[in-house]
Amino acid sequence: MNIRSQTQTKDTADTAFARTIDLDTSSVRELNQFLHDLPRALPPGSNATALRVLNPRGVHAVAAGVDADVTIEIAGDVGYYCGGMNQHATILIDGSAGIGLGENMMSGLIHVRGNASDSLGATAHGGTIIVDGNASGRCGISMKGVDIIVKGSIGPMSAFMAQAGTLAVFGDVGEAFGDSLYEAQLYVRGSVASLGADCIEKPMEEAHRAALYAKLAQQGLAGEVDVGTFRRYGSARTLYHFHVDNAGAY
Amino acid sequence: MNEQVKIPRTTPRFSATFDPHTLSEIRRAAATGIYDIRGGGSKRHLPHFDDLLFLGASMSRYPLEGYREKCGTSVTLGTRFAKKPIELKIPITIAGMSFGSLSAQAKEALGRGASLVGTSTTTGDGGMTQEERGHSNILVYQYLPSRYGMNPDDLRKADAIEVVVGQGAKPGGGGMLLGQKISPRVAQMRTLPEGIDQRSSCRHPDWTGPDDLEIKIEELREITDWEKPIYVKVGASRPYYDIALAVKAGADVIVLDGMQGGTAATQEVFIEHVGIPTLAAIRPAVQALQDLGMHRKVQLIVSGGIRNGADVAKALALGADAVSIGTAALVALGDNDPHWESDYEMLGTVAGAYDDWHEGRDPAGITTQDPDLAKRLDPIGAGRRLANFLSVLTLETQTIARAAGKSHVHNLEPEDLVALTVEAAAMAGVPLAGTNWIPGAGGR
């Protein structure tokens, strides 16, 4: 395992665990084991641990299952399920991400500085995922409380069966948006190719603008876009109880 | 003579096609505009383990003494990749059944009963409850398409992870929990509004096929540091190919659920008309494992209509490493017990036929979220009954194994079996009794 210490262990708690892991010479298994061992290894109260991951080259499950208040910078593209089930960690990806980025994330932050593939934030319960570029289809599928912000556009079947949380898209949205939606809040600034079953446009009132502004401001994005330019979508709730007259919607 | 001849009337005769049940279903559908939904598994007659017989030892085989010579029952699951395989004392596990579908008392009772005899229980669609983790010494955590209540803390608390691809009662279908059972606790666990008709997804949101599943399994192993066995559960429909692909995807254990397997609530037409019988599923599954050189290396758990030790022994003889029970376990807890006959009559049914589990009015307090009904089930007493039942299944299995001359239940083999019908002989790949004819042999 090639984990380089950038500082000596005698340094303060805030810097004692600053590390670089090179995936050309270390395995994903070694990286993840190191991250999983962090809560036991960290001094009490430490919350400024930093880790830099080099040469990810699209490998899968990078930083999956982390449960520590640690910042992980990944220098390059990652494969499937990067940051899967993340708890507390801040994961910064200096590249693009494959399928299932942040799947079932519980808390923390994932920021992709490139594009993201399918099923971004699938079933994620909490935390925030930011994509500087575009995301592909099924973005926010079955999301359960996560906040997703995509600065570019997203593909079809996004927010399918989304249950809770917020999806804000600065660009355009593909077909069947919000199909079979539950109580997730959807905001779109660009065009929507089509709405899925039981998804409708709803009035964008002051309370919604304020809520969206707060979400963006929390991530330092308040000045990037005018929240007044977003449209809001949500569930019509007509499919919450089956009735034969709605059968055509299924 | 003007005597009027009385002509005898023909006895009213119901159509075999339009029988009384079918007629009533047509009327019910016309009145409501919705298909019939119910719990449980297939109710119609299907080729099953009863269509097989064991050949006890006589001259050509040598039996073991019942109660005197040992017949092992232990099984180890997850020996392929997991650092911590599961050791069970008996080859019978409790199938995945959700909190939401079942009451907390029922989940606790399952845990108590299974733990008393050294076997495992399984969570279900809805997440892990304290009741089942607290009372199940060995707990398998289901990773389902809906991912309701899915979280990494529970994943790490589990002893194994079961990736559910399908279910025998409804291969290709998702879960269903109607509004009556979405209590505040269930709604909170599933991040859903209270009281809605919840239909969970039939496919996983973040993978689309076996190649993706391989990567998904790798992620689950990474998250849990490669410690826990990964099961893959499939509903029986194309067992040869599904099992081969599950092996390829990296499963440690495969759970194969036949169409007699139960469900909390699904369309009647789905339960009765989709999938294949358990009996028909085992041999192709075992064949796939053997063709890949993985039989006994990737363990096979068979479920769907297991009722007694003979069923267990037959499944093992056909090549399973263990079986799993769901419906029988609920009956052992007290489901459909005649003690509640008057309550069943008030629901328009009788003890033994009650299957409207989705309505949440189960008199036995098992398939309900009504707190008053749920209190009717004593988890300690029900757990004891389940432990007794599991012990009986084990003793019965050992009895048959000894009669076949086996010192471990896993030594049972297809050669110990014959079939009573041509259909069962073809499906199970064993000879028709009194012949050496295996219909379809060589054509697999």
Automatic annotation (TrEMBL), chain A:
CDD domains: GXGXG (cd00504)
SUPFAM superfamilies: Alpha subunit of glutamate synthase, C-terminal domain
Matching Gene3D superfamilies: Glutamate synthase, alpha subunit, C-terminal domain
InterPro entries the UniProt entry points to: Glu_synth_asu_C_sf, Glu_synth_lsu_3
Record GO terms (molecular function): oxidoreductase activity
Protein name: N-methylglutamate synthase subunit B
Organism from which the protein derives: Methylovirgula ligni
Biological classification of the source: Bacteria, Pseudomonadati, Pseudomonadota, Alphaproteobacteria, Hyphomicrobiales
